[in-house]
Structure formats: structure tokens, C-alpha cells
Structure prediction request, 272 residues.
Amino acid sequence: MMRPLSGLPLMGMVIMNKLNIGDAKSQIAALADFGHLADRFANKSKDIGLNVKNIGDEAHIYIDDDISAFYGITAKMVTNAFEKAHNKDIVLHINCAGGDVMQARAMVSTIVAYEGKVTAMIDGLCASAATFIACACATVAMNDGGLFMVHNASGLCWGDHVDMNKQADILLKITNTIAADYAAKTGEDKEAMLSLMDAETFMNADEALAAGFIDEIIETRHDKTVEPKNKVKPPIVENVGDVADEPEPNKISAKQLHMQAKAMQLKLSVTA
Prediction:
């Protein structure tokens, strides 16, 4: 009898999007790169993708990797980072494609229980499981080139129709809990959030702000219309009328032309 092999419910579809691979065979090959995963497992203890900096009265924590209990960033890493902040206000920088829902959910608990203020700063991509981490923060800022993506929970299952239906029920429960988080953040109803998730919706900064997922856009683009500081400006002419009456450079006046003609005639008469 075939035994079911059900994977933990993951919001993992975005990982395929991050690989930017078109066909299914290439996606499977990329995900089956066990050598790559082995390297990630071996380096897990180094807290890859999670950095902490103390800047003034704030602690800046950077989530810059996938969320996973097996590789990438774990809930324990985030909890340890928050403990080292010693109740300082925290800026939680996010550049993350998502990952394990349950690890992300534990991170949400850490954020909510923290005594200091936690502000999310989306530096690049905030997708999938990373989005409800952002929504758990007091305020959410996003740079003007960032992306915010929401979709349904997804996972793996191997077995008969009973196993498949059971997995579908679990995924739907998880999707509904996340939709409730989005509704609480945006002020919209849960059904509207479920529609966005069904469509796997990518939002730029303006769209995320309009939808209520973020509270502020951080401008990072330089204004190209500003005149360069070192540009040499032409001198200002105060007496425009006087300058206009002067002859242009190398231009011969009528009087000069008449004098040259008389000199030429005189020369011809002498030589003739």
C-alpha cells in the first residue's frame, strides 16, 4: 500500500517565480539541485541572510533570504535577533521571497510580543510568507522600486484522493488565516483579500500603498530634471539693447567696406 508523503504547507510557489525559469522541467531540475541545498544546510549555522546592526537608538534587522526550518532564516534566528535588541525600536528590513508558513507565523508572534516599536522596511521583494511578517509590524515602509506579492498557501502531497483532499483542506485553512491578516492590515474584507491571493497578485509601491498593505513609500530615485551643480552657466547680459547694436564679430560695416573700395581704386590708379 502506498503511504502518503505530505510536505509541510508552504507558500513556495514564489520560489519558482524567483528562479525565473519558464518550463516545468527546468523548474523541477532547479529545485532538485541537492548539491545547492547541501551547501545551504552546511552553512545554516552562520545565520546566512540575517544581519543585525545597531544604528543610534534603533536596531536594524535584515531578512535577506528564504524562510525555512531547514535552510535560510528560521524563527529562532529572528527571536534571538529581537532579544539582542533589548527593547530598542527595531527596523525590520525585508528582501524575501517567502517560504515556510509556520516559521513565518512564529516570527509574527515574536514581532507582536516585542515591547519596542517594530517598523517594516521593504528594501526589495516582499512576497508570499514574508508579507504577513510585514503586516505584523506597527508600520510598513517600502522603497519606490520594491514589489509586494500575495498568493495562496501551497504545498506538496503524495498519496490517494483522501490524502489530497486533506492537504487541500489544510492549505485552505492556512490561506484563510493569512487573508484575515491582510484584511486587518488593509481594512478591506477577507473575500477581497482572497481574490487577490487567488490571482497571485504582484503590486508595485504605489499599488501596495493604495491597497493599504504599506503605509509609506521611500523615494530612492534621483530627480534628473535638477540642473547639475558643476554645469557652467552663460554670463548674464544686463544691457541687452546696447549689445544688440554692436557689430557681430568679423562682420564688416558699410563704412569700412566703402573705405576698402576707395583704397583699391587708388591702388589701381597708381599701378595703371
